[in-house]
């Protein structure tokens, strides 16, 4: 009976890998993003901050001027908002829709467009309870941070896929 335990765990691991399951780790960094200049109206907040973190985690170096860069990633539009979805009997919001939206374009240092402008959007719902005001405000902020991080990973993945097509 004891010997079965030593066989079951490796067998389960083999079966798990055979189904295609893979832990989401760092994104694969396209070679053009090795030295990236990040251009944004808000370079240290919001989407630019999330992109900076994800790019550095994937192995990119964020450079301070465009002449040193292998690519320029420009955030042309960024939108973060909360919208009321439903109102309770007291007339106060009970559910919000959280939205993160970003438009970006990738160019080389000479200004040649490597990837046409693209938009990504993410929406989440948040049930709001005014008796837990501080907790719900904090939860809303954390959801926005998570959504930006997810969008940043999607941008890097989309750049890699778009450049492979060319």
Could you walk me through the main structural features you see in this protein, from its secondary elements to its overall organization?
By secondary structure, the chain is α/β, with parallel strands linked by helices. It has a single domain, classed as Double Stranded RNA Binding Domain (2-Layer Sandwich), CATH 3.30.160.150. It has helices at residues 2-18, 46-57, 133-165; strands at residues 35-39, 61-62, 71-87, 93-107, 113-127. The chain has a five-stranded mixed sheet with strand order 2-1-3-4-5, covered by helices on one side. Strand 1, helix 2 and strand 2 form a beta-alpha-beta unit. The longest helix has 33 residues, at 133-165. The radius of gyration is 21 Å and the shape is flat.
The count of helical stretches stands at 3
Strand order of the largest sheet: 2-1-3-4-5
Radius of gyration: 21 Å
Q: Please give the alpha-carbon distance between the first and last residues.
A: 57 Å
Instruction: Write the CATH homologous superfamily.
Output: Lipoprotein like domain
What does this entry show, briefly?
It is built from 3 helices and 5 strands; from the N terminus they run αβαββββα.
SSE blueprint:
Blueprint: H1 2-18, E1 35-39, H2 46-57, E2 61-62, E3 71-87, E4 93-107, E5 113-127, H3 133-165
Parallel strand pairs: 1-2, 1-3
Antiparallel strand pairs: 3-4, 4-5
């Amino acid at each position: 009976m004891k010997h079965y335990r030593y066989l079951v765990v490796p067998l389960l691991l083999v079966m798990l890998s055979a189904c295609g399951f893979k832990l989401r780790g760092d994104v694969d960094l396209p070679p053009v993003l090795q030295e990236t200049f990040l251009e944004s109206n808000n370079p240290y907040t919001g989407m630019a901050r999330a992109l900076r973190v994800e790019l550095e985690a994937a192995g990119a170096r964020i450079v301070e001027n465009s002449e040193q860069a292998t690519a320029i990633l420009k955030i042309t539009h960024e939108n973060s908002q909360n919208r009321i979805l439903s109102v309770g009997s007291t007339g106060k919001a009970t559910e919000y829709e959280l939205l993160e939206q970003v438009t970006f374009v990738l160019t080389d240092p000479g200004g040649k467009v490597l990837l046409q402008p693209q938009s990504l959007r993410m929406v989440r719902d948040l049930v709001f309870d005014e008796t837990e005001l501080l907790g719900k405000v904090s939860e809303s902020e954390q959801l926005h941070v998570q959504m930006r991080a997810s969008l940043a990973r999607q941008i890097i993945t989309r750049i890699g896929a778009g450049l492979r097509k060319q």
